[in-house]
Amino acid sequence: MKNVINNPGWTFIFGLVWFAILMSGSLFAYGSTDTVQIQVTGKIIAASCQVDIPQNVDLGQISRQDLSVAGGNSGTMVVLLKLSQCSPQVSQATVSFTGSPYTADPAFSSAIYANEASGGATDIGLQLFNLDGKALVNLANGVEYSFPVQTDTHAGIFSMGARMYTPHGTPTAGDFKSAVTVNFTYQ
Predict the structure, then answer these.
(1) Which intervals hold domain Fimbrial-type adhesion (predicted)?
(2) 144: Cβ–Cβ under 8 A, 6 or more apart, which residues?
(3) Which of 106, 174, 91 is nearest to 140 (CA)?
(4) Torsion angle defined by CA atoms of residues 52, 57, 146 and 45, in that order, rounded to the nearest 10 degrees
(5) ∠ at Cα 55 (128, 87), nearest 5°?
(6) Which residues, 6 or more positions from 123, have their beta carbon under 8 angstroms from its beta carbon?
(7) What's the rounded Cα separation, in Å, for the pair 61 and 105?
(8) What is the C-alpha separation between 131 and 43, in angstroms, rounded?
């Protein structure tokens, strides 16, 4: 009996069959399309700064008699809002203020904050204003104020004044306390 595999004719036919199978696979691969999905990730971060502000500001004591005129006020306490380590793209910061508006006289509700001390002094509120050399602005509830951030040092300082203020000059004796939330946004 002859070995069929060693037969040169069969070997040739067998080789042609394998060649045809390989070529048809290549043709299928060439004519087909593949869809491949690539996962690309990244992160967008918000511009930010390190904020350093005093948690408590003590306006001290003042005599009622020293506030006996409408518009009377205590001495001004300078409060510095400091920004450092700002993101490189930050060149300006906007500070906004939120607190309880003075409601004893609606004419002053957009200028000063209420005294929130339980049973505290009446006819007295907190006045905040800018001390940056520009026209004075009452930094009252909802007010926004912008100031520069130095692009070389990535830092900025906003100087503001804080004082007790009497709209009518008739404050009563008592404690004074007002809380204000300060928010920063960066450009």
Answers:
(1) 38-187
(2) 94, 95, 96
(3) 106
(4) 30
(5) 90
(6) 104, 166, 167, 168, 169, 170, 171, 172
(7) 24
(8) 38
Quote the CA–CA distance of 126 and 102 in Å, as a whole number.
9
* One-letter amino acid of 78: V
pLDDT in tens, the chain (187 residues): 444 445 555 455 555 454 555 555 544 555 577 888 888 877 676 789 999 999 899 999 999 999 999 999 999 999 999 999 999 999 999 999 999 999 999 999 999 999 999 999 999 999 999 999 999 999 999 999 999 999 999 999 999 999 999 999 999 999 999 999 999 999 9
| CA–CA gap between residue 167 and residue 73 (Å, rounded) | 9
Question: Per-residue b/e over 80-91, b at no fewer than 16 CB within 10 Å?
Answer: ebebeebeeebe
In the chain, the amino acid numbered 117 is A
Contacts of 22 (CB under 8 A, 6+ apart): none
Cα 177 from Cα 164, distance rounded (Å): 10
Cα–Cα distance between 25 and 161 in angstroms, integer?
82
Q: Which residue has the tokens 């060649």?
A: 19
Tokens standing for residue 56: 């408590």
